[in-house]
Amino acid sequence: MRTNSAGRLLAVMLAVIGALMLQVTVLPHFAWRVGGLGVVPDLVLLVVVAVALATDTRYATLTGFFAGLVLDIAPPADHLAGRWALALTIVGYVIGRLAHDNTAEVARFEPDGARRPALALVLVAAAGGSFVGTSVFALTGVFLNDASAGVGDLLPVALVALLLDVIAALVVVPVVWWLLRRLGADRAAQALWARV
Q1: What is the domain extent for residue 175?
Q2: Model's pTM, two decimal places?
Q3: Do 46 and 169 meet the contact criterion of CB atoms below 8 Å apart?
Q4: Considering Cα of 58, then 7, then 170, then 89, what sign does the dihedral take?
């Protein structure tokens, strides 16, 4: 069974929008206060990491750009637009490239779900994606004089964000993987489009 690009696109869009809605509406009520900033898991970043593990590098990079743009314009965005787009584009590229070039266990997305990434790979990819994404976002803020905190205040925030992202990856990555498998298969996507 081959994948359906329309179904895969629908799955990615649902995952990004769903993650964004949870990230900006529900999670701020449970924010961990570090250095005067509220830190929550970056669910949108984790969707990009999951797509990078499930698809190829090019698709993950484009997903990162789309997800970053959506995150840049979603209220209550208080930063210059484009910072998250750049950060998540780099995350999609780096995680996709490293996972597919250096790991024999990671396969391109297969609709029958025959192979999934190992738990250790998911956790390492989430940690790496969190570090890269948060670092790029913070550094662009410093370079553009758009940072709400100083460089010294950003390290504890980045470490807490990394920890929260790794924990949240245990749920987000399997859910995105399931969505991609479910909606990316020809029959499932055709059935869904027939209902619309």
Answers
A1: 5-195
A2: 0.83
A3: yes
A4: positive
Q: What is the 3-state secondary structure (H, E, C) of the chain?
A: CCECHHHHHHHHHHHHHHHHHHHHHHHHHHCEEECCEEECCCHHHHHHHHHHHHCCHHHHHHHHHHHHHHHHHCCCCCCCCCHHHHHHHHHHHHHHHHHHHHCCCCCCCCCCCCCCCCHHHHHHHHHHHHHHHHHHHHHHHHHCCCCCCCHHHHHHHHHHHHHHHHHHHHHHHHHHHHHHHHHHEHHHHHHHHHHC
Write phi, then psi, for 7 (nearest 5 degrees).
Answer: -65, -40
What's the CATH code of the domain at 113?
1.10.1760.20
Rounded Cα gap, residues 96 and 60, in angstroms = 6
Separation CA 138–CA 141 (nearest Å): 5
Counting the structural domains of the chain, the total is 1
Tokens standing for residue 187: 């029959």
**pLDDT tens digits along 72-107:** 998 877 777 888 999 999 999 999 998 877 655 444
